[in-house]
What does this fold into?
Amino acid sequence: MSDTELRQRLAARFREVNGDHPMSAADDAYVSEQFAELEAVCAGRGGGDAARRLMLEDLLPLPGYLRSDGAEMVPRDLFSLADEAGGVERLEAWFTGHWADPAEGKAEWAAYLSGQYVCLHSVSPATIRRKDRLTAAIAAIADTPGARTGPWAERLHALVDELDRLEPAFCGYDRLRFGGPTSRDLFVDAMRARFPRPRAAA
It folds into this structure.
């Protein structure tokens, strides 16, 4: 399969997963700052075509974004989990083994392969699980009557601050492909607006 055919197949798979949405100039600028072009990340690893084949074979995650010029944008640490697992052929078993429930592990593996874990600065089983715990805890405290004051408020803001450190800013394209607000919109920005820090409120 030629380089052009591989690129076309990968772009088609990407759009199957994410839909066909436009990237604005602001989206392109954000993605270029936060991510790297596939070819640059694959230097010394067999080149972009080898990585594209692995993505199409469900052995590596899809790109996080296709820039408007067609560039496949991926995390700079694209290969870090495969390296930790001992190779791409061992990655799935290593990854899913971080969840006690095999079905949950398989679901998270599918989500990882989609390339849509652009909600984390660094994607790993540990950060995925931590994000899930943080969003669940934030939602629970927000429904507590005492969430605006005292220890509950302190706990809420500590959790929001931790999630803030885990997540990047996102871009407008993300709200199109996810069909609504991002997790940062819901659990960081909205929570800070709804529950101002006590000293700021005072």
User: Anything to note?
Assistant: Strands lie at 36-37, 65-66, 72-74. The two ends are 65 Å apart (CA to CA). Residues 1-117 form one domain.
